[in-house]
């Protein structure tokens, strides 16, 4: 590049890397001063932290993001710092480094909350951070009141517990690997055609093109399986040996998309068997660490049900499939046979997971604060899980198939996990305050939990008294300084979820009129 510029303009003097580095440092110093000035006008803020390491642990970093509401009641997000952990992820060290970063910007005494994922080191980090703030800032800070678990992570853990009982998804917590990715989008209108580079003249009947990779993988199980009584893979977690519909769909999708030949064959089947409104769609393949990809895979399979049924029924129709290969294919047909009852249960699985998908998107919004919706969100998801368990128990009594049994055990596990995080939310003062201050919920919303209602009443009364004393002499000033508010436009997903949250809550005006009467 230098030689190019010197050839074009011999007299030009290009800056060297030291010059760029020096200018960047100067720019950083200027921006730091501006950030400090901006933070002086903020009374309270919350932070979010997360750590990252390269695969060989050569690089280890932690990011700090600061959230605050400005004088115009607008939610702001600011990347405050990226700190070098030097391959040390101990919670105590991270807590000290986070405090140092906050103090360097003059923002340590204003921190009221630290949002993290569920990593074990974060608990110790928050304890250390709170201790440092108490010691050096003279602020009454405690880790229990400051700590807040990311609700998206909680939902991820709940859904992972549920789907792991159905197969395909691993039961371990892989949130650190998937949190940087978006959720699977709503898939009804997506155009998931095949790769445009695929050779449409590929010979689907050629024996030389017929790969048997999955056949070889399933050979031991197919060999030991009885033709009239197929068995699936035995699970370490004690799941029934018979395959669930999730496992069947996943194996079919993997097999049908394993090569360009099979993709072309499936595309032809879709065009032949499916309604016109879904012929542009193609199969989706799930990942073992993403529960929402299982939902997307199953939802797409339900849309292309006719094609999948035809594909399995005609696996042995190719002339090239003879002898041992043909026998294995016939066993695969038995293994992958999906009954009408199983398809119905597959629809139920999607309907169970849909609210969690919607909740994850609504609670991950960046245009508005969502803390006030945490307790109501857990309550709504709990109610849906209880309704699904009640409905499924009646189905299980009649059918008793593998999918129903696995789904019921998964729902029970998901309910236990969700109630664990719901309890944490009920104990978090910030969640309580945000819920009570929401005019659609207020203190009355919490009456369904008597102990929580009592605690909330005490907390809010104390806050009110503190503010009454603090601002009693500044009433006129505050009254005249109320900013003009421009209400944020809710996203489509956020609006839909809010509508469901508020569906059983009367409007504020209605509540007020009832109380006046």
Key features of this structure:
517 residues, alpha/beta, Nucleotidyltransferase, domain 5, single chain, HAT family dimerization protein, 4 domains, globular
* Fraction of residues in β-strands: 5-15%
Number of helices: 21
**Shape call:** globular
The low-confidence parts are 186-191, 193-211, 226-240
How many domains make up the coordinates? 4
Helical coverage, percent range: 55-70%
Order of helices and strands, N to C? HHEEEHEHHEHHHHHHHHHHHHHHHH
Rounded to an integer in angstroms, the radius of gyration calculated over CA atoms is 29 Å
End-to-end C-alpha gap:
79 Å
Task: Give a count of the beta strands, DSSP E runs of length 2 or more.
Answer: 5
Lateral strand order in the biggest sheet: 3-2-1-4-5
Classify the secondary structure makeup into a structural class.
alpha/beta
Average pLDDT over all residues: 79
Mind summarizing the main beta sheet? 5 strands, mixed
Task: Kindly describe this structure.
By secondary structure, this protein is of the alpha/beta class. The chain folds into four domains: 1-40; 41-149, Nucleotidyltransferase, domain 5 (2-Layer Sandwich); 155-352, no CATH class; 367-380 and 409-516, no CATH class. Helices cover 56% and strands 7% of the residues. The chain has helices at 2-8, 17-40, 91-104, 120-137, 143-146, 151-164, 175-178, 213-224, 245-256, 260-273, 291-303, 305-313, 323-335, 340-363, 374-398, 402-427, 429-437, 450-471, 475-480, 492-501, 508-516, and strands at 45-53, 60-69, 75-84, 111-116, 147-149. A five-stranded mixed beta sheet has the order 3-2-1-4-5. A hairpin with a 5-residue loop joins strand 2 and strand 3 (75-84). Helix 6 runs antiparallel to helix 14, helix 14 packs antiparallel against helix 15 and helix 14 crosses helix 20. The N and C termini lie far apart (79 Å). Mean pLDDT is 79; it is low at 186-191, 193-211 and 226-240.
